[in-house]
Amino acid sequence: MTVSTQGMKVNWGSRTARASVELLSSMRFSISLLTVICIASVIGTVLKQQEPLGNYVNQFGPFWAQVFSLVSLNTVYSAWWFLLILAFLVISTSLCIARNAPKILADFNELKEDLREKSLKAFGHRAEGTLAESPEVAARRIGQTLVQSGWKVKLQHRDAGWMVAAKKGTANKLGYIAAHSAIVLVCIGGLLDGDMIVRAQMLLHGKSTYTGGGLIADVPAQHRLSDSNPTFRANLLVSEGAQSSTAILNQPGGVLLQDLPFSIELKKFIVEYYSTGMPKLFASDIIIHDKETGDKIPARVEVNHPASYKGVEIYQSSFDDGGSSVTLKAIPMAAASKPFEIQGTIGSSSALTNGSEKLTLEYTALRVINVENFAQGAGSGADVRKVDLRHAIDTRLGAANKTATQKELRNVGPSVSYKLRDASGQAREFNNYMLPVKVDESESSPAVYLLGVRENPMDAFQYLRIPVDAEGGMNTFLRMRAALADPVQREMAVKRYARMAIDEDRPELVRQLAASASRAMALFAGAGPEGGSSGDAATKVAGLQAISDFMEVNVPEAERNRAGEVLVRILNGVLFELTQMTRQQAGLQPLPQDEKTQGFMAQMVLSLSDAHHYPAPMAFELKDFTQVQASVFQVARAPGKTIVYLGCAFLILGVFAMLYVRERRVWVWLAPGGGKPDNSGDDSGAAQSVPESAGSSHATMALSTNRKTMDGDKEFEMLKTKLLQAPL
To answer: 284 CB contacts (<8 Å, ≥6 apart)?
Structure first.
């Protein structure tokens, strides 16, 4: 029997109804729906689902972000059109099964013993022979042989002889029913475990998504689903020492709250790391509090090892910050800013003022462990945020020397991330490390504090490097920043440098050197020729870039290299004297003139140059923190899971049956020796009876199979030898 791809033909209803039934029940329609579902699933796998709209805007642009939202490509599996296609696929496949299953089942026991001898001679596998047995004896022997080999056999006695019909591999046709039933079961399970029931409650019971803020307990009942909800899949965040019984269902345009029949208390969150910094294990020791009985059930939830209670599975999804407290110290990046300390909680914000400018400091993340990749040319497998710190440092603000020594993965300590948002709502993201990092392993290279910044969440952080001074901090850098902004301090450093560089008995050279040094310091500090501001602070050029621009305009190209070396040497000398002055004013010992100081000053010059490009009036250094962990659970009640598992089992059996089980049929027509062929059903003449007392019979054998293979050829040869083994 061949399975038809045409639809079901019905004789009732209008022409449109008959055409609709025929289309829905056709195999081509089912395959088309399945293809659309596969394409949608690929999109849902490649495109991150249920991300904030801003993430799509940053990655794909506003046009495509709007397209994704319009056709629900960012929520494929809960989109109305996806659920509708699943429903139509269930109906279409069910009709296909209903149309073909009766034919398959009817054919299951059909051995087709009514075939004529002429039909057997038309098969590709056929053979003839003469047996030294009467037709009846030969038929019974052949039938018994086939039965012993697992064939289903039927003998038919006709006036002209005996027909032996046998069949094997009937499960091949059952594979069709099993495979198509699997599609129906999997789709039904997907519909049950999807958003269909949640959407039905929103439509029939007046439930709506919630878009506001505030406490969970204050959310009205129309935004909540009861704990008897038959199916849901939601997220639940619980901090250490706290408990919660309300999970969050993300929906297009807002969220729904799912009440649980119990509450989950997080006693301790456990996380272990590989040497690369990637999490090796994260698990949660929890206590389940039953609302009805008050029982307390301890449990442990690990990745791939969920806990289960009252039909709700509790999975370990991820982990997050549970409200760690941090103490930050403001680092002035502008002359008008003053250092201060501020305390906050991760996830909260603080209001700041910078003169007339109002800023909002948002505490976004605290990372206690940061294993970073410092190997030259190596990708970052260490950082769980997929940020190659070495590459980010090398592409930091401004110019600096590249480090070339091979490094290894190492933990560089805690870091804090925050955002500074202005009054218009625009924000930059910052990531600063608490401890100094030794970027270059050479002895003369100082450790540096890393202050990262990026304008766009999709970009990598660029890092400003501030060298650690002799006292183990960055106060020398801060004093230098303040001194550079003071024309009086700059001029004092220039005069001090000129006196030390040239003997006082040559006053003309001293004045010339002082003039050149004063010009270099003014350019480096971003001041005009007279020491005043050369323009708005947001647009003026300072640092090494200002000196480079000045030389391109005022120095002939042939003399730039020599003039540049001289000017940079003068600049470095004046900055060293300025450093010594600021240390003396702070009551500190002057820096010794050795190789270590040279490395420190080289990095200091680069840091002071880069600091002019820092896009905020202040940076915040992490001084202290108290970490509070939180665990993110996925809680799910999934009645369709068992149905999906059953569908998977059916699919495996069905595919195996269709691919690896071959249906074979064998016919052997036995006529008395010298008798005429079987003419049953032939109108050209009547069948003639041949007495069976004849001691021999003529055998005509044929084999059919649903797939032509080499195994079929071998099996036919074996059957021919075994069944026709009694020649004269």
So the answer is: 266, 268, 269, 270, 300, 301, 302, 316, 631, 633
Q: Tens digits of per-residue pLDDT, 103-154?
A: 888 888 888 888 888 888 888 888 988 888 899 999 999 999 999 988 999 9
Using CA atoms, how far residue 201 sits from 209, 224, 245, in Å, is: 12, 10, 20
Distance CA 419, CA 280 (A): 30
Kindly give, in sequence order, each residue whose CB lies less than 8 Å from that of residue 257, ignoring residues fewer than 6 positions away: 210, 216, 219, 223, 224, 225, 246, 247, 248, 249
Q: Are strands 243-251 and 161-168 parallel, antiparallel or unpaired?
A: unpaired
pLDDT, tens digit (0-9, with 9 covering 90-100), for 625-672: 999 999 999 999 988 888 999 999 999 999 998 888 888 999 999 998
Give the closest residue to 369 by CA, choosing from 467, 275, 268: 275
- Strands 254-273 vs 224-225: parallel, antiparallel or unpaired: parallel
Alpha-carbon radius of gyration of the chain: 42
Picking from 700, 664, 703, 711, the residue whose alpha carbon sits closest to that of residue 138 is 700
Pull the structure tokens for residue 474: 């960055």
- Which H/E stretch holds residue 510? helix 507-525
Q: Side chain identity at 43, as an amino acid letter?
A: I
How far apart CA 717 and CA 703 sit, in angstroms, is 10
Neighbours of 52 (CB within 10 A): 10
**Total-model pTM:** 0.65
